[in-house]
Amino acid sequence: MVRICHFExxxxxxxxxxxxEKFRVSYQLISTMGFFSFALRNMKKILINPxxxxxxxxxxxxxxxxxxxxxxxxxxxxxxPKEDTPIPKKASWYDKLMxxxxxxxxxxxxVADGMSxxxxxxxxxxxxxxxxxxxxxxxxxxxxxxxGAMGVRPLRDDEEFWYERIKTNxxxxxxxxxxxxxxxxxxxxxxxxxxxxxxxxxxKEIVYLSSEESVASSNHELSSWNDVFEGVLRDLxxxxxxxRPKKTVAK
Length: 251
Known about the structure:
Number of strands: 9
Strand order of the largest sheet: 6-5-7
Strand content: 15-25%
Number of helices: 6
Helix content: 10-25%
Order of helices and strands: HHEEEHEHEEEHEEH
Low-confidence stretches: 183-196, 208-225
Largest sheet: 3 strands, antiparallel
Mean pLDDT: 75
């Protein structure tokens, strides 16, 4: 994910249109110890100082049943197709891809790069990167030696609102999709049910993914996560009882 986000930042900061085809020119999908990632295809380095590890990554992993994914997926490393997209070394957009450090950016940098929509819709200002009061290319913000800072400039008469310019970079679910959301009991007693959904008080949707049986129960309640996880272990051929600590009875 770091390489994908970084590639998008480099493209947008250089005024290039992002596209999967461009990403495939630079990266090859790989598998290492069962984990899928991306490796650089050619000698042109784009990402500088990628993170070597992520702390507490296990807390962010979850299982998804194959049935809920709308496309055919492969799991075996040998099934990964070798990337053969030609490298357009003479193309102008390829020449603009430059080595840029990996960095966690503030929200305003992401808004200016069109990677975040957290900007007032009718604002008459445009977020820009400034150095000594002059607007400079946004990619320079990735370098620690850069001494400038984010700022704003007035919207020109011939420009549309910044939010209008960047909103097409994002996909928003239409309101009608949430008009009649599935209830928690959908899929009861169905061998391969659809995922059950629920809405939080904040309006966010939660998807409960099931294993062999539905997460929903016949008494209109959701199963506990322990039950769901045990079902996932069964799918993987693991006896969940072996994972529990054995109790000793004092005589």
